[in-house]
Amino acid sequence: MKKRKKNFSGKGKWDKTPRPEEGAVKAKKHLGQHFLTDESIAERIAGTLGFSGYSKVLEIGPGMGVLTKYLLQKEAEVHVVEIDTESVMYLTENFPNLHGRIHEQDFLKYDFSGVFGKEQYAVIGNFPYNISSQIVFKVLENRQLVPEFSGMFQKEVALRICETHGSKTYGILSVLVQAFYEAEYLFTVPPSVFNPPPKVDSGVLRLRRKDNIELPCDERLFFRVVKMAFGQRRKTLRNSLKSFNLPDNVREDTIFGQRPEQLSTEAFIDLTLKIQPYAISDQR
């Protein structure tokens, strides 16, 4: 029996970086691929979904299916969306029970109403760092159909999404996500369990949609106010929202003397209600 050679890094240490198996997909830097190699973590991520009120799941960027196989053990109809042709070929060959449910598409551009119709479905994945924020915004656009969302992000992004007001890392994603979902940071994942290893820690979070996602203010204006406020986060709201040309008696309200990170999601809703009579809500 031929022994497997140990890999020497040339720096006086044995290189413990996991090597891809024969026939495995090569990670592509331009797609931000870092394949999870730790089975226990994959199983743990799959276990973050509660499967309450829905029976369909969409996994983003399954790669070689380390998370997929644990999702398939659940009582759910699993769909995967993958932009990498090589990964699609691997999944097609190794996961025959996914036949007809592998979508070779760009998640950010694809309309999944043709797949799920008006049915509820969860979204999960080991998300590429370079588009993770865009994935969150896409989920927010489809929040009426997505009751649960969980997965792995760069740790600082996951923490930012779950952060509460008063923190320097609290920002646009924090406010917009928490307006519609309960956000929970679950656990941290080290670089060593990926191939290739990223340069930073990863973090797994879970979002569960609130019972009531109807805002009492104009929704489009709410998004606009939040983005404008954090666009100049060092300024008070009186200055960052100056373009609304609010009357002096409105601008004198104490809320306008605060900075955006001081406002909770509920306070941003109140702020939007104060601005609403004077703003054009169909602009962002």
Automatic annotation (TrEMBL):
Domain of life: Bacteria
Enzyme class: transferase
Signal as UniProt keyword: no
PROSITE patterns: RRNA_A_DIMETH, SAM_RNA_A_N6_MT
One term of GO molecular function: 16S rRNA (adenine(1518)-N(6)/adenine(1519)-N(6))-dimethyltransferase activity
Location within or outside the cell: Cytoplasm
Keyword Methyltransferase: yes
Ranges annotated as biased composition (Basic and acidic residues): 12-25
Record CDD domains: AdoMet_MTases
Annotated Ribosomal RNA adenine methylase transferase N-terminal domain residues: 41-211
Residue positions binding S-adenosyl-L-methionine: H34, L36, G61, E82, D106, N126
Assigned keywords, A-Z: Cytoplasm, Methyltransferase, RNA-binding, rRNA processing, S-adenosyl-L-methionine, Transferase
Catalytically driven reaction(s): adenosine(1518)/adenosine(1519) in 16S rRNA + 4 S-adenosyl-L-methionine = N(6)-dimethyladenosine(1518)/N(6)-dimethyladenosine(1519) in 16S rRNA + 4 S-adenosyl-L-homocysteine + 4 H(+)
Cross-referenced PANTHER family: DIMETHYLADENOSINE TRANSFERASE, DIMETHYLADENOSINE TRANSFERASE-RELATED
Function per UniProt: Specifically dimethylates two adjacent adenosines (A1518 and A1519) in the loop of a conserved hairpin near the 3'-end of 16S rRNA in the 30S particle. May play a critical role in biogenesis of 30S subunits.
Protein name, entry field: Ribosomal RNA small subunit methyltransferase A
Organism the protein comes from: Autumnicola tepida
Classification lineage: Bacteria, Pseudomonadati, Bacteroidota, Flavobacteriia, Flavobacteriales
Gene transcribed to yield this protein: rsmA
